[in-house]
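G., before I forget:
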Amino acid sequence: MTLPRESVPALQLENLTKVFQVGRASHGITAVNSVSLTIGRGEVLALVGESGSGKSTIARLIAHLHNPTSGKVTINGRLIPNDLRGAALNTFRKDVQMIFQDPYGSLNGLNTLEYILSRPLLIHKVATRQSVHAQVCALLERVGLAPGAVWAAKKPHELSGGQRQRVVIARALATQPNLILADEPTSALDVSIRLDIMNLLLDLKEQEQLSMLFITHDLSGARYMADRVAVMYTGYIVEIGPAQQVIDHPQMPYTQLLRAAVPKPEEGRHAEAVEARGEVPDLTNLPPGCPFEPRCPHARAACREALPGMYEVGPDHFVRCILFDPALIAPLSMSP
Amino acid sequence: MTTTAATPAPASRNWLRDSVIGLMWRSPQGRVGLIILLTMFFLGLFAPLITPYDPSVGAFATNLPPGAGHPLGTTALGQDIFAQLLYGARLTLLIGLASGAISTLIGTTMGLTAAYFGGRIGAVINLITNVVLVVPGLPMLIVVSAFLRGTGVLSIILVIALTGWPWGARVLRSQALTLRERDFVHAATMSGESHVRIVFKEMLPNLAGIIAANFFSTALYAVLSEASLSFLGIGDVSKVTWGTMLYWAQAKQALLQGSWWWVAAPGLGIALLGTAFALLNFGIDEISNPKSGHRTKAPKALDPVDGTPVNGNGALLSITNLNAGYSTPEGNVRAVRDVTLDIAPGEFVGLAGESGCGKSTLAFAATRLLESPGVVFSGQSRLNGKDLLRMNAEELRQIRWKEYSLVFQASMNVLNPVIKIREQVYDAMQAHGVKDAATLDRRARELFELVGIRESYLDAYPHQLSGGMKQRVVIAIALALEPKLVVMDEPTTALDVVVQRQILQEINDVRRRLNISIIFITHDLSLLVEMSDRMAIMYAGEIVELASADDIYMRPKHPYTQKLMTAFPPLSGDRERREGIPGRPPSLSLELSGCPFFDRCSLRIEGKCDTQKPALVQVEVGHQVACFLHSGAVDAGKTLNPDLGVNA
């Protein structure tokens, strides 16, 4: 399963790291730890993990809502300085847009949809004063809110959660970005609406060759949406590969645990037993070895010594686990 | 697509209703404050028309008591006090409002700047604010006014404004700090909005209520400060204000002379003006936090029903024809509509449905936990044959927690952070008569083992535990008295999947071991399908399908259930495109004559489903459904009971 990728990826992260300094503590909180990944043109990469795993922080680093502590962000082949500001930041914003989790919090309730959608169009000179109304209507219709002119006059409180999220998506599309960062765009929505929103994003991706970072804690949503999936744990990427490979046949013990814990009635009505052991390490004081070692059923002494590297376990499929270390794999012949 | 042809927003808005005055008029407190303030304003404005006298000329006999000609008497200098009061209102109001406005402006600017920019600028502003804040007000006023002395009213306004802003700045800063982290502000940043525009167009309008409240409280401060300064003789005592009236009354020893009216008139004026500002402040609070005025009343018991309750079906909890909802200013909302449901002993019943379908209201109403503005309109809910909806407070207290208990989503936050967990576990047991320390300790250890927490955590404080641990403690407390029924409203929604799975396993073990019935509410359908014995699918306040979880998942009958069961993507198998359910549920304030799912249903029968309501009937053993595709039974006469007081 190889993916069509053009020579210049939409997004490339190299060793991206973010340490939040809290108060005067000597140890900062390492939210994102040396993350490297690539998103090809027209590709959706899902970033999955539990709360506190750093997945949302990555989106905010790429969006420059926070500045990275170290590492390199390359968008469309252009290296983005970590301390981007001023006019350069503005140009950058045109290319990278974000869809927020909570459609109730991400629209200012005092403004009309017309105002909300006209701002990015005007700021980035996508529309002129004369054409802005027509473009706002066109945007609304593109996300399924037709007739646009009727919807444009409304304020957010007149809309349901799903309709609001469509407006949030329309706002992200307004600047004609190359990269969309979708931060849990469906988790605040009802089950019956989630698919609508995911289908809309998939349609837009098809139609406009959008590249997307899709952040979620929902494995089935990631499987539905993404071409590839990256699994995060305590700020590290621990597994990355083609969506169906990673989710249907996870190799990293953590991903296996995650999959076992998710309810999946289609595989029989009775849940898998999940063993409770160990705790998530403290982000202010990460162990030198594998962060999952305290909870891992396959843990051994070597796991505590150093952070495992990423080992290839299949085509385009990498796992951060010493069980796949070629130096160890021959004598052990592990089959997790 | 979820589009509906909707009416456009009302084009012409009533400007008066939307103005500050219109807003304040909606709150009774604000209305009184507004009336006082406007009365004073017009009395001051039209003073020359109301009284023929000059307030500063002593043309009359001195120290006249109130009477004909001089309704409030005269001063020791022979001035008419009524005229002084009217003219004094002008300057007093001017000083109050102008100082209030200036200090609000300073406070708002400082607070917003500090919050928005943070960092070094924020720190400097914060320092200045704190310094001004800790300097005692009156002495500072006196010192500052000593420097500005002699320039009249303007200097008084400036002095008061310069000392009155820090409190507002603090409040505004903390509010703006939370606002800055809201996603719509991030979204504006992402759009490339300028700082100025984000502050003025996105943040400021959302702070209008606080700024207005701040204005009225600083205006109050200004009026009181002006009175104090003038009373002390600082400022221009030749001008007539209510403060200088007090100064002269004091200087001429009005009270010793027996001229109490000279003190009372300006004193009452100041008190009244202060009251007006305070009321306006409360009014704003009432409008911006409609809930704060709402006292949560204990839910009232329903009137007894005629006839003896039937209880032959062996159910632990038997809910019959329950109608419940919320009373709002616009009328009653029936969020639970004629629901009948039996829970057998030891049974795990899942309540599923979209948000706002009434599933939580059903659980809370049936267990008598629905708080105001929630109302139970009618119906019965019998636990072991006793109707919970008709018990008095003492009867309820005795069975609550002992016979049934509750765990809800945020309940890990009910743990008191400053009390050891052990005490909190003991609490419920002690309230129900377990006093012996050894028994309490033994029981607490048992409970912790039951929910999978180490005993040593009994002596920890809540903050030392993770969210999942705290939720386990709450579940342990809910099980403390071995209730036969536990209602769980999204108990694991805030938790990560692995923790959720572990807690669910423990809940399942415990309920099998102790034969507890569980009503489990969640929007996570796949989880319910795995956990439940039976599932009830709710839609717009009604149960539309009730069957074993297997039947609901494998053989759903209601078109809504069928769509719901395919609305979540699977974790294995082909990656095929699935469809959600277009449209949205009808508003619960509507009373519908037909099936509530009619609008969204692809299998609807025009002319039947929209005019008649299908009854929930058993179509197979243990499988009930309310749909004309499966049964022609019509739910007649149960649509609306006039004594519910529901506005159609």
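The mean pLDDT of chain B is 83. The longest strand of chain B covers residues 331-343.

More on Monday.
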